[in-house]
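Q: Please design a sequence for this.
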């Protein structure tokens, strides 16, 4: 009798399992990846210290980081206010600017003292300083290097200016 009872119980369990209801539902998912288009400057101020008239300043370097995940080409424009003490001006032709691009990010280097990317600061009208090309997306590290040749006849004073870097999606 115990065997028959066990067989009935097992048969009922198998029957219940075989006839269990089943339903399927589908869950849709979505994620929006934010566009990241950013230019950060590591050092907001470059101090050249005291420079004698007729000499070249020690170069000063400012690190930059450009980030883009939009897939579009982009460029960096540069412009500047005059280097002035309020009365006298050091001409833009006396300010040499270079751009060094991290070789790991691009596979190339734009660091060349004899052939700077931008020979002189352009002045108030923005000028293209760097063009990304379509292969450069993600994070790109650059260094802007600036040095000033103080004209021999330059009057003494504390000269300053503002250099504006603008990252623009093409």
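A: Design:
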């Amino acid at each position: 009798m115990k065997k028959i009872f066990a067989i009935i119980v097992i048969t009922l369990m198998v029957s219940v399992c075989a006839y269990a209801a089943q339903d399927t539902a589908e869950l849709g998912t979505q994620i929006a990846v934010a566009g990241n288009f950013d230019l950060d400057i590591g050092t907001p101020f470059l101090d050249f210290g005291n420079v004698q008239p007729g000499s070249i300043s020690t170069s000063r370097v400012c690190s930059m980081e450009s980030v883009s995940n939009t897939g579009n080409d982009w460029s960096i424009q540069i412009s500047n206010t005059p280097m002035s003490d309020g009365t006298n001006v050091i001409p833009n032709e006396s300010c040499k600017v270079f751009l060094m691009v991290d070789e790991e990010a691009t596979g190339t280097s734009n660091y060349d003292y004899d052939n700077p990317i931008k020979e002189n600061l352009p002045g108030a009208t923005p000028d293209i300083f760097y063009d990304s090309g379509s292969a450069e997306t993600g994070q790109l590290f650059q260094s802007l290097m600036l040095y000033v040749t103080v004209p021999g006849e330059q009057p003494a004073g504390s000269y300053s200016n503002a250099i504006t870097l603008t990252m623009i999606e093409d």
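Q: Thanks. Anything notable?
A: Residues 12 and 115 are 88 Å apart (CA to CA). The first helix runs from residue 2 to 18.
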